[in-house]
Amino acid sequence: MPPPPPRPRAREHGLTFGSLPTGVHNAITDVPGVRVGHVTRWSDDGDGVARTGVTAILPDDLARLYLRPMAGGPALLNGCGELTGSISMAEWGTLDSPIMLTSTTAIGRVFDAVVDATFDAVPADVDDEVIPVPIVGECDDSWLDEARRRHVTLADAGAAIDRAVGGPVAEGVVGAGTGMITMEHKAGIGTSSRALDGLGVVGVLVLANFGRADQLRVAGAPVGRRLIADSDDTSNGRGDAGSCIGVVATDIPLDARQLVRVARRVGLGLARMGSIAGHHSGEIFCAFSTTNRRDREAVGVISVDLLGDDSIGAVFEATVDATEEAVCNALFVADTVTGRDGHVAPGLPLDRVLD
After folding, report:
1. Active site residue 243
2. Among this protein's residues, is 281 annotated catalytic?
3. pLDDT band at 297 (very low <50, low <70, confident <90, very high)
């Protein structure tokens, strides 16, 4: 049985999220130059049950990104998870790597794949001192995937980078989101964007894998509790274990300090959906700006344009609204998946939710 086909996004059902307009594709790829690629691993054969994958977010070509880093900053809400490279990002305030998302047990292989791809993109005759520090975020998909088999390979991660494109972004049961669950319903990849007049675009992509069924809220309504009241059991038995990696992209000129503040606002978008950032969950975020780039070996005084702090409120609002919508998209687009040991992650019952 193949992965379930994608269902309509939240807005296609008439839901709205704040008053700000979306970008053209309502996706992180509305930020100029940003591309997304997925590789999905799905099988039920002799290699075991695979419900996993890898997703690549490319802010630019690998060589240009490494040689001319852009401003970036990480933020942490609850730390039961991993975002490799976040310490260097916090120290230097820069992003020089694609942002990769995958399952917990695949971090090492995806990390290695980015190192290989960067060496290939920046050969020794261009820079013989290239030392990549890849950004790889993870969530635990072992409720559905036989994680011990580590189905994601170096080739898969390399292919996700190669397949990265602009335009509409596949959501739900795809790439790193293939085995992910949110509020005990099938979820995975979700994305959304906001266009700020005169400033630029803010785009968010989430790998959504968090929360209990009773916590779920949609448009402020206590949907989870009502679903439980109308059903014998909507629990998949996993409880609130899980995580959420949130990535914010923008072409608004922000520095690393401001981007850390922006990244924190992803947590407010998750809270609107009912998240409490549970003990066993890793809510880890990062944000980057495609502007104000500088040569990797720049010395001396450099000048940059910068958004004034008194104007950053619109960016915060855009981030919170887009995060809320991105999680809703992950839940609305994904449908029921059966994985290892017969475990089932039910698709959100959209008719009942909308009622």
Report:
1. yes
2. yes
3. confident
